[in-house]
Structures are given as structure tokens and as C-alpha cells.
Write a structure and sequence with these properties.
Blueprint: E1 6-8, H1 10-23, E2 29-32, E3 45-46, E4 56-57, E5 61-64, E6 75-83, E7 97-101, E8 113-116, E9 121-123, E10 126-129, E11 139-140, E12 151-153, H2 161-169, E13 174-177, E14 183-187, E15 192-193, E16 204-205, H3 208-218, E17 224-225, H4 233-244, E18 249-253, H5 264-271, E19 273-279, E20 281-282, E21 288-292, E22 295-300, H6 304-322, E23 332-336, E24 340-341, E25 347-356, E26 362-366, H7 375-379, E27 383-387, E28 393-394, E29 399-404
Parallel strand pairs: 1-19, 6-7, 14-17, 14-18, 15-16, 18-22, 20-25, 23-26
Antiparallel strand pairs: 2-13, 3-12, 4-11, 5-7, 5-8, 6-10, 9-10, 19-21, 21-22, 23-29, 24-28, 25-26, 25-27, 27-29
Bound molecules: adenosine monophosphate and magnesium ion.
Magnesium ion (MG) is lined by residues 188-189, 254-255, 261, 302.
Length: 405
């Protein structure tokens, strides 16, 4: 008996994932600015004062009063002091006077222009400056970068080094950020063996665990790999319920199809909640999304290429929604570098390699290894090519959406 959405469109699955993820978003925490790298900002940052905070020099040279200077002949001024970058020493320039100044130093009172060192001639206390220097020359005005009261960073933005630097320039010692979801990773299947151990007949090495761990770490998360699960209902139930009591998200690989040993959909129906099971996409159709105890559960089909595609198509948006990330992940439009024929009408996330043509057009070369067990094709590629539902024949040159990975 199923009273959950099944065999849904990808767009609908994405909508459910995003909505459920956003609703589960924990409240923000404040973190020292030294530790916010790559995190999602949870509260906007507004400038309490302008940047630059005060008028200052753009050059090393001499602060002058433009009214003293001639438009068509050099002028000689008297040097009365120096103002370096640092504390304002309170210099005041009277008519006919100038002061040494360095880049970033506050402008002495009375000064309204700077003459760079290289354009001035100093002889003891006398400095001769060229004609034609106007008010404002080589001065950086207060507020020219940011005016007081401006919102400079928005909630949902990812904290890049440049954004962190901007917050630091505004004196912020800590920022409100979204906590990182904790994630438990399981691979499942009686056939799986640990890389490094001898293979028994019928066994294959577990390649999904490290794929998922890598994909999650690339998002800046610190996933925990749990011991591999055999296809044993009792052990699967015990382990998943343990993890679901302790983690925000549980991601599994394998065991979600309709086979006899595919235990996860039944487990969620019996002990948790199913938000959807099966999405009309290739690879990865049997993907399962639900909740168990306090955790959200994402069950990815076991073929490694399905894990890659469903993680990027659904897992990453879930983790982004949980962190309130408002900035979309990069997706580009590229032209197919060769013809491609889809033997079906489903939405497909095909693997391909990006390059740009000599005249600056982004091209993507589809990888012919299109089956979901063909991990080599995924390893040789660097992007998913989104081939929409409905279409079958694609001519070289057709624009397609690509998701780099
Ligand atoms: P399942 O989704 O459990 O039916 O698995 C689908 C296919 O993926 C089967 O051929 C499995 O052997 C394979 N598979 C499942 N889990 C893994 C894994 N961790 N590493 C490599 N292949 C796997
Ligand atoms: Mg299996």
C-alpha cells in the first residue's frame, strides 16, 4: 500500500526535497569570522559605517590644498609635517603648506588633493608640485566603496574569501551562519567487500562509500561512514534507526529498487515516512526520500553512476536547502560536441566532458558509456548533461544544460 508520491517528475522531486529541507533548517549560530569559510550566511550584513571610513590618500606623496596650486605653472609649497597610514596625528594645512602622506593615510584638515611622490620635487622643506592638480586628485573618498546603511551581504549567500573580507572590513567579529547538517553514509549489499580485502567469487568492492564521502566533503560537510550493511532486514533496521537518532541526514546507497533484497522502502513505510519513491529520471529512477526518527533519509540506487547523478540532482539540493543556501549551484549551457541519441524519452543525466572551442563556445562531449554501472565513463567526465524528457535525437551543436562536478 502506498500513499506517497511515486514515479514523479524530477521537477516535483526537487520541489519536495527543497521544501522539506527548508522546513527542517535549524536555527542559525554565530561563528567567529575566522571559521566561516564556505558556510552559508544566515543573516544579512549591513554596513554601520562607510567604506572607506574616512577620506584618505590613494598614493604615497604629498597632501596639498588645490586652491594653492596654479593651473599652468608648478607651485612650491612648504612641508610642515607627515601623516602616515595609522593614527590621525591631527595635522592642519594652512595656505602654502603641504604634508608628506602615505597610501591609506587620513587626509590632513585643509588638504583636498594628493600629489604622488614621483611627480613632486622635494628640496629640504620645499616641495614643488606640477600644474593642473585639482581638488580630489588621488584621494579615496569616504563611502566611495560602501555607504553607511547599505546591506552588503544577504542571508543565503555563501561566504567566499572576498565576502568574509568585506565583513571584516566592516568590523564584524562573528557572523550568523547556518549549521552544517550532520550526515551518515551507508553502503548496502551482500555482494560488497572492503577495498584491500580479497574478493570472494560473486563479490565486488564497495565503490559507493568513498564516492559519497567525497561528494559530501566537496560541499564542506564532515560525513561519517557507517559500517557497510548486509541485505539483512534486522541489521539494516537497527543500524538505520541508530543513525537516524543521531544525524540530521542519512544517505544510503543500494537497496531501494523493487528486488527482494531492497529493504529500504519497506523500512521507511513501516517506521518512518516516505516523501517520494521513484523519480522519472535516468540513471537513478528508484531513488527514495523520506524521514526516519529525527533524520531525513535519502536512499540512492546502488549503481555508482546512479549515486553520482542522484546525489548531484537531489542530494546536493537537499543539503543546500537544509543550510538555507540561496545561491544556485553552477549550471551552464553548452553545445553538444557530437550527435547523441537517447533510446528512451525519460529525463537523462548523461556524463560528459566540458571544453571550450577556439572561438570561446562551451562544448560538452557526451561519454558513450551511458549505462549506470559504467563508472569509468563518469571518471573520465566532469559534468552531467541534462537531456530533457520527451526528446530523443540530439544533433551536434544543440544547446544543453550541464552541471559540472
Ligand atoms: P541495488 O540498488 O542494491 O539493487 O544495487 C544496484 C547495483 O549496484 C548492483 O549491481 C550492485 O551490486 C551495485 N552496487 C550496490 N552498492 C554498491 C557499492 N557500494 N559499490 C559498488 N556497486 C554497488
Ligand atoms: Mg543491493
Amino acid at each position: 500500500m502506498s500513499d506517497f508520491p511515486t514515479r514523479i517528475d524530477y521537477a516535483q522531486a526537487l520541489e519536495i526535497i527543497t521544501r522539506v529541507g527548508a522546513a527542517r533548517r535549524p536555527s542559525s549560530q554565530r561563528l567567529a569570522i575566522q571559521r566561516v569559510d564556505g558556510r552559508v550566511l544566515a543573516q544579512a550584513v549591513t554596513a554601520e559605517f562607510p567604506l572607506p571610513p574616512f577620506d584618505n590618500s590613494r598614493m604615497d606623496g604629498f597632501a596639498v590644498r588645490s586652491a594653492d596650486l596654479s593651473a599652468d605653472a608648478p607651485t612650491t609649497l612648504t612641508l610642515v609635517g607627515e601623516q602616515f597610514a595609522g593614527l590621525d596625528v591631527g595635522l592642519v594645512l594652512q595656505p602654502g603648506q603641504c604634508a608628506r602622506i602615505t597610501t591609506g593615510a587620513p587626509l590632513p584638515a585643509g588638504a583636498d588633493a594628493v600629489v604622488m611622490k614621483e611627480n613632486a620635487a622635494r628640496d629640504g622643506d620645499l616641495v614643488t608640485v606640477p600644474a593642473g592638480i585639482r581638488a580630489g586628485h588621488d584621494i579615496r573618498r569616504a563611502g566611495e566603496d560602501v555607504q553607511a546603511g547599505t546591506q552588503v551581504l544577504d542571508a543565503g549567500q555563501v561566504l567566499t574569501p572576498a565576502r568574509i573580507s568585506l565583513a571584516a572590513a566592516l568590523g564584524q567579529a562573528d557572523l550568523a551562519i547556518s549549521p552544517k547538517p550532520t550526515v551518515a553514509v551507508f553502503s548496502t549489499g551482500d555482494e560488497l567487500a572492503e577495498p584491500g580485502m580479497p574478493l570472494q567469487p560473486g563479490q565486488i568492492y564497495d565503490s559507493n562509500r568513498d564516492l559519497l564521502m567525497g561528494l559530501l566533503r566537496q560541499l564542506g560537510l564532515e560525513p561519517v561512514a557507517w559500517p557497510r550493511l548486509p541485505d539483512d532486514p534486522q541489521r539494516v533496521e537497527t543500524a538505520l534507526r541508530d543513525a537516524a537518532g543521531a544525524f540530521d541526514v542519512v544517505i544510503t546507497a543500494g537497496g531501494v529498487s523493487a528486488g527482494e533484497k531492497d529493504l529500504l522502502p519497506g523500512l521507511l513505510q513501516a517506521h518512518g515516512e516516505v516523501h517520494f519513491w521513484k523519480v522519472r529520471m535516468k540513471p537513478g529512477m528508484p531513488v527514495l526520500f523520506g524521514a526516519l526518527d529525527q533524520a531525513l533519509m535519502l536512499g540512492l540506487p546502488g549503481n555508482p553512476v546512479s549515486v553520482l547523478a542522484t546525489f548531484l540532482a537531489l542530494g546536493r539540493p537537499l543539503l543546500d536547502a537544509l543550510q538555507g543556501r540561496a545561491e544556485p549551484r553552477p549550471r551552464f549551457t553548452a553545445r553538444l560536441a557530437s550527435d547523441w541519441n537517447k533510446p528512451h524519452e525519460r529525463l537523462e543525466f548523461l556524463r560528459g566532458r566540458l571544453r571550450s572551442s577556439e572561438d570561446g563556445v562551451l562544448l560538452v562531449e557526451p561519454n558513450p558509456a551511458e549505462a549506470s554501472h559504467q563508472l569509468r565513463g563518469a571518471a573520465d567526465s566532469d559534468a552531467l548533461i541534462v537531456l530533457d524528457a520527451g526528446e530523443r535525437a540530439y544533433a551536434a551543436g544543440t544547446p544543453v544544460t550541464v552541471l559540472p562536478y
